[in-house]
Amino acid sequence: MLFSSPAAASHFLAPAMHRSDTPLGLSSDAAFAAALIDPDLPVPHGVVGPHGKKADRRFAVYRNTVTVSLVTALGDIFPVVRKLVGEGFFRAMAQIHVAASPPSSPLLFDYGRDFPAFLEGFEPVARLVYLPDVARLERAWLDSFHAADADPLDPEDLGRVAPDRLADLTFTPHPAMQIVASRYAIVSIVAASRADQSLSSIEPLEPEAGLITRPDSSVILRHLPEGGAFFLSALAGGAVLGEAAGQTLADWPMFDLPSAIAAMLEAGAFTACANSSS
Amino acid sequence: MTRTETRYPDISHARFSKAPLPPRAGAGLKGDHVDQILADPWPVGFLEVHAENYMGDGGPAHKALTAIRNRFPVSVHGVGLSIGATQGLDQRHLDRLAAVVDRYEPGMVSEHLAWSTHDGTYFNDLLPVPYDRDTLDRVVTHVQRVQDRLKRRILIENPSTYVAYAQSTMSETDFISEIAHRSGCGLLLDINNVFVSATNHGFKPMNYLYDFPLELVEEIHLAGHAEDIDDEGERLLIDAHDRPVCGDVWALYDIVISQIGAVPTVIEWDNDVPDWPVLRREAQAADAILVASGRIALLGSRHASV
């Protein structure tokens, strides 16, 4: 995979290259960096092969390694997107994104934050309307994976709160908790794809929201019921339980509050609760 | 790193027992191998991790490395500090490296003679530096800054390269010697890199090793390489880390060990990663050379087992 394709190799051998095109006066790594990103630039001035040999194919090894390794990194961050569009298409598409938005940090697990927005504007995948939100869910999944460790809230802590004080409780979100809501069935798509299950029974235009947590050492993705994303986001944003529940029930009268609280405790969405008025 | 350290760790800080790298074969740690390594009745000498993979706040990666570190010595190998960059070190990244070193108390810390970041873009590759006085001064300053921040000596690794710079005025071995002597760092000798660069630049690997300051080598890397051709149709080797170590590199390794004695040695396999038993076989092959040739080494037992 580190080899240049025949097409790429012939490009680097094209006669249109004039070394004098390279801007002079740049530091060695500035000229090198510019030519790494832009394949239309010639091999940087002063970059040579040994004993008078040419450096075109030699320099192409660096170009190729940079592109291939970053495309691979994007594919590893967004495995469901990769599977949905196919490996070959994904690599071609990711290469365009890598050239336009290379990473700014050596932490590759932080890369790809612009990829969902890129997918939104990438015309060839416009018909896969759910793809950008699938990517958002995958990006959130990786953030959860690397988030700080913390013990989830012990349900008994909540059980000790006097019933008349429950409405005043605030909750501290777990560092690994993520909520992603979409107009599309992204939770079903991601869950099925990552489990290597068929997607054929999924109706992609169903709105879905997902809760991502890491209660133990594994990242877990769950469906949220209607109103659930609003409710948990309100709590995570610092609203007291009574206020979050009231606003949720106003918009979603069928919202099952006791089940939602039981589910959020089981998922490990929060680490602590406290009485806001105490 | 004296061997007369107290046996009782300072519990106010240390999370692990002290574990210098043994003069044995180790392996680059891959996430998929953790369970197999922990269950393997044959204990690999140590495990080396890429620092950047453990710069997240928490989660399964840290849990796995903690389990490994509880059982094995660990070395931390940075791939993203960009020590050769003209624009200086990224203090935030240096702080992150310090946090990893603080967290895992590795037996060794190493980085590359290379750059990977320029003008805010990270290229995820180890890119070559020119061998001239300005670059040397800069690299020495950077290595010293890293050692000051980490409060320990680091090792610098010789690169594999495909191109050279017309502006270079020194040999790679002289350049590396001066880095070590001026900064006080030790050296990590990657013998596959020597073989790759020798092939690509048309010199003999043994000539490179004659000129290399072997007395400063505290760790060795071995890996496999791929093969391509250059513009003239001649062999161009790619430092791919995607296959077993080749016979030529094993032969060079045997010679180096017979000269300098047994040194901690890492088998690196980063692409097309095989199951653990395949990587273990490579490590066992290195162990066999360390035992057989390390014993007769001219430089004696300066890396005697702990």
How many runs of DSSP E, i.e. beta strands of chain A? 6
By DSSP (H or I, 4+ residues per run), the number of helices of chain A equals: 12
The main sheet of chain A comes to: 3 strands, antiparallel
What best-fitting shape of chain A do the alpha-carbon axes yield?
Answer: elongated
Largest sheet of chain B: 8 strands, parallel, barrel
Largest interface: A-B, 55 and 57 residues
Low-pLDDT stretches of chain A are 1-24
Mean pLDDT of chain A: 90
Beta percentage of chain B is 15-25%
Architecture overview:
The complex is a heterodimer of chains A (278) and B (306). Helices cover 46% and strands 10% of the residues of chain A. Chain A has 12 helices and 6 strands. Chain A has helices spanning 6-12, 28-37, 56-77, 79-85, 87-100, 115-121, 131-146, 155-159, 186-194, 228-236, 241-251, 257-267; strands spanning 47-48, 169-173, 178-182, 208-213, 220-224, 270-275. In chain A, strand 4 (208-213) and strand 5 (220-224) form a beta hairpin. In chain A, helix 6 packs antiparallel against helix 7 (131-146) and helix 7 (131-146) packs across helix 9 (186-194). Mean pLDDT of chain A is 90; it is low at 1-24. Chain B is of the alpha/beta class and 306 residues long. Chain B has helices spanning 34-39, 60-71, 91-104, 133-150, 172-183, 191-201, 205-211, 247-260, 276-294; strands spanning 25-28, 47-50, 74-77, 108-112, 115-118, 121-127, 155-157, 164-165, 186-190, 217-223, 226-229, 235-238, 265-268. In chain B, the strands form 3 sheets. Chain B has an 8-stranded parallel beta barrel, surrounded by 4 helices. A two-stranded antiparallel ribbon of chain B has the order 5-6. In chain B, helix 4 packs parallel to helix 5 (172-183) and helix 8 (247-260) runs parallel beside helix 9 (276-294). The longest helix of chain B is centred in the C-terminal third of the chain and has 19 residues, at 276-294. Chain B is globular, with a radius of gyration of 19 Å. The chains are: A mainly alpha (278), B alpha/beta (306). Chains A and B meet through helix 2, strand 1, helix 3 and helix 7 of A and helix 2, strand 5, strand 6, strand 8 and strand 11 of B.
